[in-house]
Amino acid sequence: MEFFPIFLDIREQPVVVIGGGDVALRKVNLLRSAGARVTVISPEAHQGIRALADNGEIEWRAEAYGDDHLAGARLVMAATNLAEVNARVAQTARQAGIPVNVADNPDKGSFITPSIIDRSPVMIAVSTGGAAPVLARLIRTRLEALIPAAYGRLGGLAQRYRETVKQRFSDVSRRRRFWEKVLTGGVAERIFAGDLSGADMAMEQALEAASDTPPGGEVYLVGAGPGDPDLISFRALRLMQQADVVVYDRLVSKPILEMTRRDADRVYVGKERNRHAMRQEEINRLLADLAKQGKRVLRLKGGDPFIFGRGGEEIDTLAEEGVPFQVIPAITAASGCAAYSGIPLTHRDYAQSVTFVTGHLKDGTINLNWPQLAQPRQTVVFYMGLLGLPIIRDKLIEHGVPPTMPIALIQQGTTENQRVFTGALENIQEVVEREKPKPPTLIIVGEVVELRDKLNWYQNAPKALGDKLWASIPDDGDQQGSLLDDHRTLD
Ligand SMILES: C[S@@+](CC[C@H](N)C(=O)[O-])C[C@H]1O[C@@H](n2cnc3c(N)ncnc32)[C@H](O)[C@@H]1O
What is the set of active-site residues? Predict the structure, then answer.
């Protein structure tokens, strides 16, 4: 973060604008709308500045800039068309410790002004740190379209009732839930429909009807998908933003975790080297206990919670103890990796069925129905199969799969760190030794893999973020995956 975003109270504060042209006028208008006492310093001034000065709304001093003009200012805007004057203003202000903005030259000033969407009292500021003002304006335009003007009125209602609601609910989480209901329910609808008195009435009713009993907790078992944040569902996003506690493990990528409510408590229950892992039974217990404390608990899981995710066990405990829950499905690694690597899992000419299996090692072996997996005209997808790959290869060949059968390994599928390695069953281990794929990696075996040459579309550019997308996944083949417990294999 290059600039720290804040909203400043400059009501009745002295602010100096150096310059008298169009740009200066825009700054003056903005500052006045925030209630500042504005003085403009410029030998010449735009008609609009003169008019404001004539009305006594600002002070205009028709003088060339001198450093004394900054004395006592709380904020300074350098907006002349002379770079050397702007630079001098910036230097003097910085030396005096006064925040200064230099129009069109963010590097010289100490603060920048964002693009804003004004739905007072709701104010949305967008900044690219001066890197791409046009992009900031573009984003602002999109947000303008998304956020109706009525949000300002909704903000006004919230402001009017703030104290009353605070008195009514001393408990913060109850208060928060009340507001969430009001701002997304009938009261908001009336505001959007322009029925302000109806909204006030509905608000009074809501306050009256609000129960004093502590709110019940709930668990949201939410699939976070394979990694690309764009792939999560609207419903998942909504619940991610309203949960009080987030219980997550190592398969949830960082960008997705960052989409959860900022002030929610976060509990990491995944395995990390040198860090104590929570066993599955402990996680089940934790979810139930948190919900019983009245919390809305987000249990965020990589991929789909019901596909090799032990989601069933987690809600089993909840069901037994009468804790309400919801399950939100998501794109599983097989679908995500297949799509992003251009490998259709089924195809009329090559595969009439697809099977998802876990390739985890247990006691040095993989217990699967190999004769069935070796049948022709099918695709087999192995989750958690990287460590057991030599066994998978041997077993498939032993049961009749041709050694030349195409196979793909997809590392960190759907993310900017996706890498895809292809080969034939007989030589895939050489590929692994050479390329050293990192977890999480998915394995696809079948003729459909050949289609990738033609259908590959996803062009990712790995970022500096590197492997930190999943900071907590060990890449050393550590088999102590607590979450997987008896799966016991990270990859
Ligand atoms: C415990 S399973 C969880 C599966 C998850 N519930 C799902 O539906 O995708 C973990 C395995 O899923 C696979 N996996 C999950 N996300 C992946 C990704 N983004 N890229 C490749 N493989 C992934 C890997 O094989 C990993 O070892």
Answer: 249, 271
